[in-house]
């Protein structure tokens, strides 16, 4: 079985997390997916490629398993991040369009979910927590930047078109205001793009769980509309190098700015 995570250890105070770029689905689980599920449509396509090389010697932690195995950015207790709104759970039963992803009678039961928590979700978060603690011990502060993407139009989840940059800090609770402001400054000045702070996406479980500014750990989520870097948001979900290169300029600016802020955030 593929290891549930990949780590690159760096010396920067910034950590990049990639909970949803993995496409590995073990055979015993893949056999239970229906034809719709096997498309793996809800992958955060190419996000680890998009951020690659933007910040020198940054630490990265990437889940290799697909979110249909188990969602690494959901509360392990199964509590909804957005009560009262359509969303997908710890182990999704549907895709982002509300369509079933499992064969009839093959949806995961409680035992399946417990096994996947043990084998995938817990190891990924143990690795991420260890890197956060290592970076904080080195710098006196750690800034977790959680990297995501999603289709720009998903009526099941939100109305209209999603902004290009969607910043989540749980209404300012998960990071120092200077980090939030630095990120906003870049995206609001980025010509040809629109942005939103704490709109439909306020930060997932990763951001909310680890972001504790009083302890020296700051977390911010960036959810990018996939129209900013894909040729098409439908299969084959091809990477658009020209779009991506334009976008990477702004992402690099964000990461450099928040890295420069880090020394001022020491407790």
From TrEMBL:
SUPFAM superfamilies: Zn-dependent exopeptidases (SSF53187). Keywords: Plasmid. Signal peptide: none annotated. It comes from the Bacteria. The keyword Mitochondrion does not apply. Gene3D superfamilies: Zn-dependent exopeptidases. The keyword Signal does not apply. This is N-formylglutamate amidohydrolase.
């Amino acid at each position: 079985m593929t290891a549930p995570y990949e780590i690159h250890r760096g010396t920067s105070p910034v950590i990049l997390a990639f909970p949803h770029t993995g496409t590995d689905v073990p055979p015993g689980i893949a056999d239970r997916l229906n034809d719709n599920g096997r498309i793996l449509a809800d992958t955060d396509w190419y996000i680890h490629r998009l951020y690659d090389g933007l910040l020198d010697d940054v630490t990265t932690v990437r889940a290799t398993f697909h979110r249909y195995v188990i969602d690494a950015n959901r509360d392990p207790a199964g509590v909804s991040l957005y009560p009262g709104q359509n969303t997908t759970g710890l182990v999704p039963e549907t895709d982002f369009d509300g369509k079933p992803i499992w064969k009839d009678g093959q949806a995961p039961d409680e035992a399946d979910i417990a096994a996947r928590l043990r084998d995938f979700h817990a190891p990924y978060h143990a690795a991420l927590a260890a890197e956060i603690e290592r970076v904080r011990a080195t710098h006196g502060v750690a800034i977790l930047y959680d990297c995501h993407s999603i289709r720009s139009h998903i009526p099941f989840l939100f109305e209209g078109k999603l902004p290009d940059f969607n910043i989540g800090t749980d209404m300012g609770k998960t990071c120092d205001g200077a980090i939030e402001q630095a990120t906003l400054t870049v995206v609001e000045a980025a010509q040809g793009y629109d942005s939103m702070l704490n709109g439909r996406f306020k930060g997932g479980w990763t951001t909310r769980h680890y972001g504790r500014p009083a302890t020296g750990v700051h977390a911010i989520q960036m959810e990018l509309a996939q129209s900013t870097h894909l040729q098409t948001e439908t299969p084959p979900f091809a990477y658009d190098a020209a779009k991506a290169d334009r976008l990477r300029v702004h992402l690099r600016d964000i990461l450099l700015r928040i890295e420069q802020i880090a020394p001022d955030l020491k407790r």
